[in-house]
Amino acid sequence: MFELIWNINLLLAWLVGLYTFVHSVCMLAKCLIRNYLRQPLDLAKRYGKGSWAVVTGSTGGIGAEYCKQLAKQGFNLVLFGRNKDKLEELDAKLKKDNSLLQTQIVVADFAEDNSAKFYEHLYRKIQKLDISILINNAGAVIPEFFENCKLESAISCSNINMTGPAMLTRMFINDFLKRTSRTAIINVSSLIRVVPSPYIKEYPSTKQFLTLFSYYLQDNYGDKIDIQDLNPAVVTTNLNNHQIGPDSITPEHCVASSLRDLGQEFCTVPAMIHSFIGQMLFVMNKFMKPLYRATFVNNYEMEILGSFYEKHRNKK
Ligand SMILES: NC(=O)c1ccc[n+]([C@@H]2O[C@H](COP(=O)([O-])OP(=O)(O)OC[C@H]3O[C@@H](n4cnc5c(N)ncnc54)[C@H](OP(=O)(O)O)[C@@H]3O)[C@@H](O)[C@H]2O)c1
């Protein structure tokens, strides 16, 4: 009897091991195919030639890059931002490189207002355009420890990272469902959401919301709308003080990966190194908590906060 139980346990252990091995090989193969073999779809054909892409946070690193790459593919652009001068500068630059490009500028600060009136007003400004891609990209981090952060900062962060994307999507969803071509919604989340980040709690939490929101959209509208949950780790932009390291990628790389996967993959991690880091942190946090805290939390996270404090000090 004992021998039988022992043998069953042994068999189960082998099966679990085999499953884990096959699963890891499949993940690796998928990652390699996605990063090195996959060809992007013809997005203009899929979403409608001459249709419009709305990009929030268009004046920053990843947002500006979306504008550049989508204009090249023949999309017209609605440039959302909170700074009119920056928007006009971007507009002029894009038009210089793409003589046929049409644009519309929308000045909106998502931190300032989260009322229904505010979003209705934004919607009315562009409702007549044939919008085929919505990119919820604007995002902000609170450069303060959660327990010390000002209430206004916490509310702003929630407004920019959660209310803005959810409300913009709500304003446009019915128009998207009526289109004859497919439509796309890209939500720019973050890989930091996969692990607890004790010092910068609010940002990962808001990104986790955005990912769950993407899952909801995918489940309910995936048959008509291509949803993408984009999860970068470090991208060298203003958000992280233009941090450069072995794990960082450029906004060009990040956006090219996102557009390559659009319509083909729901959850996109834009680089192999980012997939690896995400997996490593996830496993470390689950099985080696002290090591996770000693390395990621106490070094990496503090480094991020440190660069924010520095940036803040420099601004004063
Ligand atoms: N960089 C990374 O390592 C990284 C990693 C994972 C995810 N992400 C996500 O990627 C997205 C883009 O960030 P980024 O890296 O390109 O940083 P960025 O260069 O700082 O761009 C952020 C954009 O959001 C806009 N924005 C900030 N606050 C706003 C507000 N209150 N109302 C309207 N727009 C506002 C900024 O406008 P201004 O130009 O006026 O400041 C800027 O256009 C964010 O959602 C971020 O969370 C970034």
From TrEMBL:
Gene3D superfamilies: NAD(P)-binding Rossmann-like Domain
A family per Pfam: adh_short
Keywords for this protein: Membrane, Oxidoreductase, Transmembrane, Transmembrane helix
Source superkingdom: Eukaryota
GO molecular function: oxidoreductase activity
Membrane-spanning segments: 12-33
Family membership noted in the UniProt record: Belongs to the short-chain dehydrogenases/reductases (SDR) family.
Protein name (record): Uncharacterized protein
Source organism: Euplotes crassus
